[in-house]
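Reopening this one. Same input as before:
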Amino acid sequence: MNFDLNIVGGRVFDGTGTDARRVDIGICGDRIEAIGNLAEAEAETTIDAAGCIVCPGFIDAHSHSDTYLLIEPSAASKIHQGVTTEICGNCGASAAPFNGDYKMPSDWLDKDYSKPWKTVAEYRERFAEAQPAVNAALLIGHNTLHAGICGYEPRGADFQELRNMFQALEKALDEGAIGLSSGLAYPPGSAVPREELVELAKVVARHGGLYTTHMRSESDRLLEAIDEAIDIAERSGARLQISHLKASGSNNWNKIFQALEKIETKIPTLGIGADRYPYTAGCTDLDIVLPQWASYGGRDTILARLRDPATRKKIRDELIAEPPGHWDNVMVGSTSFEEFKGKYLPEVAEALGMDEVDALLHLIDADDLKTGGIFFGMSEENMWRVLAQPYVALGSDASLRAPWGPLSHDHPHPRAYGSFTKFLRATLDGKTVALPEAIRKMTSLPAEQFGLKQRGLIKEGYFADIAIFDPDEVKENTTYADPHRLSGGTRHLVVNGFHTLENGKQTDRHGGRFLSH
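Same output, byte for byte:
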C-alpha cells in the first residue's frame, strides 16, 4: 500500500473510550485509509510516533474563535493543545448573520477584517479564503439574531419580529449553521421571555440541530436556570447542550449535586450534553457586574449612563451594596491600561487611589466597555466532579490566540492556551478520569453531541484529524499572570490529512474546513 502519510509506532486511542492498541495509521488525502501493521508500507511522509500517544484531534466543544479564525488562521493557541475542530457561535454571539444595527462583541469589533460579511454564506467564503489550520462549525447566536432584528431594549420580539427571526435562522441553518446558542446572562437575551427561545429552538429541531445555552444563572438561580433549559428542550424537541456547567459563588457550591441530578434524570429522554473547562475562574467583559437595568440599550446607551453623574451614582450605590469581599475575587484581564492587566481589582483600586467600585467604573468607562474580567468563584472539587460526568465534553470557552500578531496584545484567561493540555496532564497524573475516557470526552463525545459526521474517531474512512503527543511532556505553560504561552508536548497534528504541526513546530499546511451537517 502507498500512503500520503503513515503514522507508525504509537499507542493509539481510537476515541471510543477503550484502551490503546499498537497499530499504525495510513492516510490518503483527507481520510484514514488503513489501520493495522503498516510499518513496511510506502508513504510520502512517515511519522515515527514511538513513545507517543496517538488519538483523534480534539474538538473544542465551546469556542469563541468565530472571527479570529479569519485574522489568525494559524490558530496557534489551539493547535498546540491538539485541537483540530472548534464549535463556534456560543453564548448567544455568532459571526453571522448580521442584521439591522447589530454590533459584534467588543473583542471582535475592534479588530481589522479585510472583507466584510453579513450572512453565514459570506462568512464561509471569508473562512475558505483565510484557510485556517482548524475546522470550525457555527452555532447561531440568539443575541445576534434578536439584537439585529429587535434592537437592544429589554423586551421580547413582537409577532412580525419573531417571524423575521425565524426566517433569518432558517436561512442561516440552510447555509450551514448547526444550531442555536443563547446567552441568557447577557443583554438583550437576559430580558427575553422563554417562549421566544422555545419557538426558535423548534426551528432548529426541524433542521436536526441543537440548542446550546449559557443559562440565565450559574450561581444563585442555577437550579431554576437548568429547569428552564430543560423545559425549552422538551417543548421544542431540540437537543440540549448546557454550556460551561458550573456553580459559581461559594454559597452555591452545594447546588452542583442537585444540578447534576436534574440533568441526569432527563438524559434518557432528552440526551442532554454539557461542556466545561478545567479552571475555577470564569472570564467575560468586566461590565457584566453592572446592574441589569444599566446593561440594556447597546454600547452607546450604557456609556451614556456611566457618564451621567446621577446615573453613575445610582450604579455605584447598587454595586457598593453587594457583600463585602466580593471584589477580591475579580482580576482585570484585557484593558488599555497595560499596568493593570492581570491585577486584582483591589490592587488596581489602590494604584488609582479609589475604592474598588470606583476603580471598576473608571476602567470600563475609560475602555469604552472593552475591559475584560476574570472572576474567581468556583470550587475545584466541583470542577473535577463535573468534568468526570460521562456526558460532559471539554470546552475552552475561549477564542484562539497567538503569542504574535493582532491577537497577542490582550490579556486572556489561560484557558485559551491551556484547557486541553491541562486536562490531559491531570488525567495522566491520575487526578481525574482515566486516559481512554479523557480522550473520549475531547473527541467522539463532542463529535456526537454536535453531529460532526465521520470525525472524533480513528476509524477507517473517517477524516484524518489526528493528534500525537508526548505523555511525559504534555502540559500547559500559560498562567493568569502571563497567559500568552503555548502549550507543550503536542508533537504532531494532522487536520484533514494536512500535517499542521510537525515535531512541535507549526507548518504552513492548513487543512481546516467549515463543517456543517
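So the earlier flakiness isn't reproducible anymore. For the record, The chain has two domains: 57-280+377-454, 284-376.
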